[in-house]
Amino acid sequence: MSRQPRSALGVRASVRAYGLAVRLFPAGFRAQFGDELAEAFAEAARERYARHGLRGLARLWLETAADLTVHAGGPRLAAWRGRDPGLSLRDERRTARRARPVIRDVRGGAGMLETLRQDVRFAVRTLVKAPGFTAAVVATIALGVGATTAIFTVVNGIVLRPLPFPGSERVVMICETNPRTSWCGASPLNMADLARESRTLDSAGVGRGEPLIAQIGGESFGVRGGIASPGFFRVLRITPALGRLIEDRDMDRGANHVAVVSEAFWRSRLGADPSVIGRAITVDGQALTIIGVLPPDVFIPIYSGRDLWRPLTASIDNVDNRAWRGFVPLGRIKAGETVASATAELTALHEQLVQAYPEANKDWGLRLEGLRNHLIGPVSRTLWIFLGAVGFVLLIACANVASLLLVRATGRAREFAVRASLGAGRRRLVRQLLTESLVVSLLGGACGLALAVWATRAFVSLAPASIPRLGEVGIDGRVALFAFLLSTATAVLFGFAPARHASKTDLSGTLKGLRVAGGDARLRAAFVVVELALALVLLVGAGLLMRSFGSLLAWDPGFSPEGVTFSFMLPPRDVYPDGQAVGAMQRVRDEAATVPGVEGAAIASGGPLFPGGDGTYAMSIDDRPPMSPDEGPPVEYYNIDPYYFRTLGVKIVRGRDLSTADTFGAAPVAVVNESLVRRYFPNEDPLGHRVTVSDHSAEIVGVVADVAPFYPDQPVRPLIYWPTDQFRRGTGYLIVRARPGVGGIEKAVRARAAAVDPRIQLSAFVDLESAVGSNLVGPRFNMLLVGVFALVAVLLAAIGVYGVVAYSVASRTREIGVRVALGATPDGIVRQVVRGGLGLAAVGLVVGLAGAVALGRLIASLLYGLPSTDSLALAGAAAVFALVTLVACWVPARRAARVDPIVALRVE
Questions:
Q1: Which domain holds residue 543?
Q2: How far apart are CA 828 and CA 811, in angstroms?
Q3: Taking the model in full, what pTM does it have?
Q4: Could you tell me if 735 and 826 lie in one domain?
């Protein structure tokens, strides 16, 4: 005897059990519909078992147990009992087929979809009938979702997305560290040794930017250039658009006269010539052969936008100065290795280099840092703070939406009571209200996504240029998914509480016309407290940033920057080698000083307010040993000419200024600032002492006033100024001070420089006031952004307070009418209503101040010279908070004071 398969036995047993369950219906009903129901159930059982086995049959039975009674038994039994005896059997079956949700349910849940469609259609009809409410909710959600999505778009594009080249997560900065400097650099010789000996590195290399002078067709022009080792491009996995990149063979002397140009340079200067490979171009007096063209939009960290790259100017094995660490070092870790394993191995190898070359590597260590973190680390914290701040706005908007939904649900209490009395369960009412919340939230999310597109463009256009990867910010699939999930979460989280509360309808009281508002009033009050607390946190944050920005506006460097402009001067190296470039720059300076309207001109390698400088170094005094970092901060030095201080207007406070007699071959001299004197000569006269920095020794002949740093939280650094004639270099800044209101200075100075030598390149002139003002862009942007968030939050919170107080007044119309009839004065009614609103504000104030203290610690990095618990900012925010809350309460309070008791009692 053959045995039946288990599937046949399981389905057969289920069908038999279902037949027994159908016996619960009247005999006539079973006779008319029993076969049809059994057939549908058997088909569904076979399908469920085939897909999910016994678990599918068990779930089918759970669904059938509920649907048999509610969806099938109810409608079909009602149709059978109320049938017309005169109907034919065909008409009866047609009537029965109109109520067959159990058959659709057991065939895969189509009944649930049908119910969802019904809920959505009903929700849409309900929302259309209340256009004011719908518009308010959609606008509020759109504002919250749009602002949050916009900031998330920026965070996604800058922080979350990987860098735009293959395997970017395995690229690291290999920084040689020293207590005297925070610059991440490395010696090219050390990097070459590490790359050759390491087993954890796939490739490694160094790069460095440098200004160059190129000549094409008799035209001489400055270009932004760079020098690099072959490994620098290998790490970034760059594939040239034409030709090849720098290779190991290009590093040998005599073979290193090659260049790789950018795609923009190839188009603008070389006419996009496809046969440019092998063509010669003159750079700094040398003929370089073009060997490759970089692809468009290539990503080269730190040195983006360079026009021309060439190999190191000498064989990497013959570079004399191993201590030269002015290169950006990149390394790519092999697949399967970790940053920890690479750090351990490279640290051990670097210690061997310290022992092998102690003079160049003494006190130098090594650390690895992810390239992505190195590039975006300084701004990622700020962007996360922005995302958190706009998240507060979203929460406030959602609390407002929840309050609106609760008010609307309370107003529909009679409708829910009627539906409940007709058999609608609590879950059914909650599901319907959640469906309405979902519909309106998705509509608001769609509008918010459109708003986010505009807001993102505004952010990118207004953001400081110092924020990396701004060009990569844009709406993509991840952002759209974020907006959708945010809208859905808004509907579920902030629609559930009002829906659940509204479902707890007192049928008897509501149908009798009684108002039952205790629970929903408390819930709305809780929403308002949350709104007020979050708004106060943002208000305090905006106040702190505003106070910090004000301290930047009050900056005084100690001289007037008005009328001061500067340009970077680059004499051609092949024409002016060694110290001859100083003489050429001095002639340009002298000619510039004779331009009408110019009050002074000077040359310098940099300065406290100018780019450039030579880094920070340890200093020794007289014959004493160099000080350790614990004994004093390292010093910075610049080389300047005798006209530098008088051109800027910086005062000599002791001794003398540098003079034209301080030339090459004369006794080396130096001028130091007051900060250095306070640190190293607190109780003695510094004049006459000798200081040595970076193997250069000189006698202190003068003390100059400190130039205040732009950011007030930064200390004044100890500085040393050497004469340009005694500390020669081939480039420098030309600094010009002109009388205010005089125009055409740049054109005239360029003409005088061309008269000296047309091959000397001058970069675009930069106004010192504008350069200093550029430092305000970031703080101003931070202040405006958080200020906008705070303004929106305060307005939303004020609307929330107004809504709660106004609804409370409306629900207490009869009570207020009775009070007025019994002699209550309008002022007394106003005080009572305002007192209730201010009570909520007091709770929000306490909670908000606690949150504001925590926020202050988070944004401490955005503040300049201001404590995170600044009392003036806290007091100002609290005052604005109280004023806004008072106005929001006063408007409905005045309306309550004008209640006519006769009209109020008649309405009730």
A1: 518-555+773-906
A2: 18
A3: 0.69
A4: no
